[in-house]
Every structure is written in structure tokens, then in C-alpha cells.
Fold these 4 entries.
Entry 1:
Amino acid sequence: MKCKNLLTLTLLFLLTLTYSYSQKLQITANHSDAKFILLNDYDDSDKQELGTGAIEYKLEKDSRNRIKVTKPGYEPVIKEFNKDLKWDKEQYVSLDSRRVEITAEPYDAEIYVDGRMIGTKAIYLIIQKDRFHTVEVKNQGLRPLRKVITIPLTGKPLLPRIILS
């Protein structure tokens, strides 16, 4: 009887210890409308939307705990929270790099970024915070156009529409 009670108490203690060890993280983005998405472990596809702006997330035992934070116009950020590591309860994710679509007309015009040919027709350009890029569009027989794209501290980047004529 004594052994049975000791075994029961030991199991109860181990269960309590295991439950209390599970980590819950408070993850906050620098944009209140940024979406948090849990990714599949095998192919990084979207598994489940977790919330917007700030979430509470319990680390899963048999998972890579990969979370993508995304907002239109920004480069998504992927964070992996390894279950075996001790994390601060408060985690902050900053979306700073802007994802800008640049299109050129006519569609066979070549698009250069900082002097390097990147593509034709349309490209996505990632611009880091406090950086700028020189975009040039060239087409045979037409005068080239050059624009500088900067990311202001607040708001959207100023995007010129580039049309060669």
C-alpha cells in the first residue's frame, strides 16, 4: 500500500513538472495588423493562422515551431523556436524590409537595380529599412529612365511608375 501511494505521488509530481515546463511565448510584431502563421515542419507551407498583431504560443514538443510573420508590402519573417532551448517569455518580431513590385512598360524593357540587370516586365525588390536603390529601365531605341526608391521611416515607399516612350 505504501509503495502504491509513493508511485502515485511520483507520477503526479512528474506530470506536474512536465506541464509546468512547457513554454508559452508572448510574440508581438511591430505592426498591429501583421499575421502570424504556423508553418508545416516538412515543406514550410502554411499550416494554421495563429492571430494578428500579438499572439500567445505554446511550444509543441514534436514540432520545429516555425512561425511566419507577414504583412502585405513587407518581406515575411520566419522565426523558429526550438523546444529544447529556454526562450524569454516576451518575443518581438520586427518587419522592416519592404517588398516592392516594380513593373515596366513596354514589357520587354530591362530593369536594372543599382547597375545590375535583374529582369524584364516585373520584379520584386526587397528594400531594407533606411536603404535606397537606384532603379533604371532600358529598352533598345528609347531613352533610359532612372529613379531612386527609398523607404521612409513611416508609411509606404514612394514608387514611381516607369513608362518608356
Note: The longest strand covers residues 98-105.
Entry 2:
Amino acid sequence: MLVLKAPAGFRLRFDELAFAPGGDALAAAPSWGVTLWTSFADGARAEAVPLGDGVASQRLAFAPDGRTLFAGSDLLLAVDLASRVVRRVPLDRWHRLGFGVSPDGARLIVSERLGGTVGGAEGTRLTCRPTDDLDRPTWQLITQVDVLLPPAFPPGSHQFVQLESTHELMAERWSPRVVVRTLDTGAVLTETDLLPVPDYPDQAALSPDGLTLVVRLRDRIYANLIGVAGAAEVIANPSRKHFTGIAFHPSGRYLAATSNDKTVKLYDTTSWELTRTFTWDIGRVRSVAFSPDGTLAAAGSDTGKVVVWDVDL
């Protein structure tokens, strides 16, 4: 076990972590810019990668070749990791932004919550942009649905998965559905209604086999089999704290969850029972991630510290 630290002089809260595809670097999203560790040595300080004045980063996505890191919140930027040159993807500033990179690295899928209305109702714009030509989308759709979370990509397919809803933002309950769309045009392939949920979803994770979508709310986690309407396994938080982060182990056997306390909990995905708890004295833990080969895990805190440990499951 080792502890990584924020850049000198900063006390940051890390709400999202992402390992590079090669597992040799770790990125974190504080309230501004990006922090990046390229050395996993105890006490190593992160490099601060500024994204520009007033630009926040709440979402991170590495390109599969590890050369580019996409980051953003209401703006979307592409960081060339060799030169550290930051380029803004040509989008307007929106209320909410989601994005993800296709497994082959060729396409960037972006969902933008429109600032105005579409046909008298709030809507979302979906675009597909080649990663080697971000200025020119290959397709664009404007829908009257709300895309709740960033896209996820089933392995070995030309599809992406989104959690969508037609409810207004201030509705007391959400009735989300899992929508599978084709990468080629954005057309809907399948739609599956899920159980209504009492809160706005905070995060989703797709299992490595692409069959289960896990959705995190503040006080519970729903595990939904894609294509099975209504049915869901529910993980209730055993503490009074709310869930703050989730991540699948690459084997698919375990789901890790953080709860704004000192723990990282592992749940067996065959039974969704709690099987192991790690306790780390780094502050309140906000996020969790696994390296692509599953040998390392990392958890980020509200004190500017990240713990990294060897995974032995």
C-alpha cells in the first residue's frame, strides 16, 4: 500500500479517478484542472495539468492508446499527454456534459444537455466525433430525453449504452431506461425500462462483460441486467454515509464502492453480498478505480490523498 499526494500547496477532493490503459499512470479530477501521477511511489506528488481559467473537471476518459485524456464538466477538453497541450473540443458551454471514448479509440460520444428547449421541451444533443478530427462530427441527434449519465461501451461491439429518462429534472421520482444505440448512427437498438428511483443517479458502471449496468444513487446501488425490464438487485448502504463512487474489477467478479468514510467495500457480483472491506486512513474516501489488468486499486479522498494497493482477490 502507498499514498499519493496532491500537488504541493493544494488540498483537493478527488471525486473521480482513472487509470491509464497501460496502468502506468493515474488521473484524478479535482474541482479544477486535472492531476496526474506517472510514478507510483509512496508520497509521490501529482502533476497539476491546468485546463484553463475557471474550467472544472468532473469526468475523465482516457483514449485506449493512452495518448489523450479527455476531461471536463460543462466544457470538454482533450489533453495530449506527451506534450501536455490542452485543446478545447468545439462545444458550447452546457448545463451538463457526458462523454466517453469507444473501445477502438476511434470515436468520442458526447451528450450535451441543451441550455434552451427543443420543440418546447428540454432536450439533449448526442454527437459522435472522430478522435482524429474532433471538429467534424460524423453524426448528430437532438432528442427530447434527458441523458442521465455518460455513455458506456460493451466489449467487442459497435454499440454504446446510456441511461435516459423523459422526466423533468425536478421530478420527485425518476423512471430511467437503459438505451442501447449504434455507434454508426446513434439509432436506438433496444430500450429497457428500469424501476423508478427516488433520486437523480450520480454514476453508472458497465460490467466488463457488458451485461449488467450498475447505477449509483446516494443511499443505494441498483444492478440491472441489460434487456431485463424492471428487475434489479439493490445494494443498500450499511452505514449512514452516502455512496460516493463505484467501479467494477476487470474480472467482473467484484464491484467496489466508497461511502464518504474511510472504507472501500467489495461486493460479490454473483450474490451482491458484501465480501470484504478495506479501511484507509486518508480522509473521507470519494472515488475508486482499478487498473486495467486488475492488479492495482486506487481510492481518492477529500484530503488530496490517493491510496494505491495491490489487489489480491
Note: The radius of gyration is 18 Å.
Entry 3:
Amino acid sequence: MAAVHDAASSIARLAESVLGQELQSVQLIVVDCDSRDRTLEMCTRAAERDMRLDVIHLDTDDLCRGLDAGIEEARGTYLLFMEQEDWFGMCGLENMVDAAERDGLELIIPSFSFDTYYDSGERASHRVSFASDTTSTAQEFRHNAHMLIDEGLFDLHKGKLMLRDRVDEMGLRFGIAGDPADVILGYMETVERVAAVEESVYHAPRPQEVAPTSLDPYLYTRCEREHERLVGLASHWSMLEDAELMRAIHRRHLSQVILSIENVCATRAISSIERSERVRDMIEAPSTRETISALQADRGRFGFMFSPIAKGNVAACCFGARLNRFARGSHLPFISAGSAA
């Protein structure tokens, strides 16, 4: 299912990628969240031609409410959430369902292709997979969780096949959670039977990266909230002493801190004094200092950003962040900002 808003340019591809699968026993739910373009009209006409498509219209652009409305409408054994720009590769869904039914799985994770489309017409794809054997116990899954965290897939709610009954039994709803990541983290808290289906590819387009014209004031807040959630989950699992898991959590955190510094340093929406204060607050935060301490052995993964953050050098952080962002935008291969966001 997908909750969408003003998705006229992409909804047809999403629908065709689902309804065009060989899997016939599928229900696609599109919840139109107060779109102002032709999204609702396009979906309604498509639903008239294919009874597997159900369309709901809400008078709100709250996508979390839209997803909850979709859950109530769902009739299948499994749930899978999509975003409006996304689409499935050939045979992706049937491969995941086959694996779920064959092995009695609670969670099925596809390969993710993060696709960037450039003005030149070129496409660059970064494909990541959860390279793990099928797990049959909670401990086995938790032992492998660090791989999902390192790839930035752990708290990604979309593209993953989940059991509908389990979602209901746990009372998981997006409106209650407030953040889609909280739903998938809640689902994985006690999950046991998990498998990766690498031949199933879920495509998630990313916009071409350009220098921001305005500051994202909540980027760092989201970074800290994600880190707090992951540390909390590790605590719940009694795995705060698990070096592999905690290093993955800290690697993810530092990558997001670096992106937050880049966001602050690349915009002219704030003064240089405020920019320096924001960067200082980030690099001097107790969570950042703890992360730096935990990642001394991994410093090379973060290019030239690790040292100025470790030393608390605000000016060097700002310079490095601008250079880092320019390097990624220019596709230079020799500069690293850590793992993919």
C-alpha cells in the first residue's frame, strides 16, 4: 500500500510495478491524501479497470493517517508499505511471498536500489542487500542486525513484507507512532523468522543532490532521535555490550551527524555566527563525543571529517563539510562521508 500526495508523475509506475507482477492474489491500496493534481482521478480510473486496486481519499495530507487507513482496508495475509516515487522490479513481490510462505517468515527484506536521476538523463543506482542467512530465532536476527544498520536499512519501513496479523496484535499504527521508523522498529523488536530475498529489487528514487537553498531545521533532531531509538533497542535486547552492534549504531550516528553539519554549512539561510554555534552544539553533544570515542578504529571510513569532529574544530568541520558535499555532488571517488544515508 502507498499513501500519496500529488503523485501524478509517479503513481502509474508504482501501480504497474505491483499489478504487473505474476502474483495475482495481490491487493494494491492507494490512499490519496488530499492531492491537488490528477492523482485521485488517475487512480480512480485505474481501479475501474483492475479490481485488485483499491483507492481511498482522505481530506488531509497526513501520510501517516493515510497508511493507517490503508491498513484498515487491507485484506491480505501480508502488508508491504511503499512511497509514491518507488516501484518494484520484475518478480519482486512473488519471490518475497514465496519465501514467506515456504519458510513461515515474519519479515522479508528485499534488495534496495537507491536510484538517482540526473538532468543529463543518466541514472546512478546504489544497490544494497541484507546479506544474511534466514534466521529462526530472535537471537540470530539480532546478531545480524548490525548489517542492516550499516546499510541504512534497519529503520526503513518501506519495501519490507510483514505479517498483517502480527502488525495488528502489536497494535502498530503510524498515527500513534508519529514516525514510520517507530512502526518498523516496533515490529522488529521481537521478530525471529527473517530472510533476505536478494533477487527481489525495490527501487527507491532519490533526487539529484544540489546545494540546499534553505536549512532543514529538523535534520539534526531526526539524527539524534534515530540514534536514541537504536541505542534504546540495543538496551531492550540487552546488547549494549555487543561491540559489533554498537559500532554499527555509532557508525550510523556519525554519518548522520556529518550530513547535519553539511546541511548547516551549505546554506546561506543563517549567519556565520549561528552556523558556527550550531556546528559546535553538534560536535560537542555528549552523544557525538561517545560516538567518536567508540569509533577510533573506524576513523578511516569517514574521510577527513572524523579528525575535526574528534578535535572539536568548528572551522575545520565547516570547511570539510562544504568540500565533502561538493565532492559527492561532483561524483569524486576519493572523498568519504561515511555510510550511505
Note: Confidence is low (pLDDT under 50) at residues 333-341.
Entry 4:
Amino acid sequence: MPFSLSSGSAVPVRGLHLLLLGASLLGCGAQAQLWQTPQVTAKQPLLAGYTAAGHVFRKKDTTFTLDVVAERVVGVLVETTNTADLARGFGVAWDMTEKDLPELQKT
């Protein structure tokens, strides 16, 4: 089953794989974290407990990969099998806090 996030291209969804590209087009909230440097993004509390290797963060069956262009984060690739970490991936892109994630999981 394909999933498209306003990028014009469909991304196959296996488990809960999701490509977050073009989120900066979604408005001010989306721009909160995108366009920061990878170093700023890596310091987010939402990534605490994840093992970092370059622009890739892993924990159990979840991987977040920062899409970086000209030393700016322009997207986040989320590979996971659960909705909690899928919401966390959105939170990483949008600079949300831990308390925002339960409500985001409902949508």
C-alpha cells in the first residue's frame, strides 16, 4: 500500500515506514526543527536513548535517518513497526516534546 506525503511521489509502506519530506511546506510548526543543523537536531530530548551513527539514530526496531542537504536537515526518514516511534519521528522533524506524542499518535 503506497503512502504519499504531498511530495508527489508514493512511498511504499511496509510496517510503518514513512518518509517525511517536504514538511517545511506544512507551515510554521513544521519549520521549527527542519532547516537546523544535524548537530542541533541530534540534541533533541526525543532522540535520547537512541544510538547515533552519523545522521542515523537507532533503537530496537526503529531507525531515524536525517536527510541533510548543505548541512541542514531537510527531512527525516522513519523506519519502524509501531505508532509510538512513528509519532516520535514526526516529533523529531517538528521539534515537539515528549508530552506532544500521545496526542499525535491518535491521528
Note: The first strand starts at residue 2 and ends at 3.
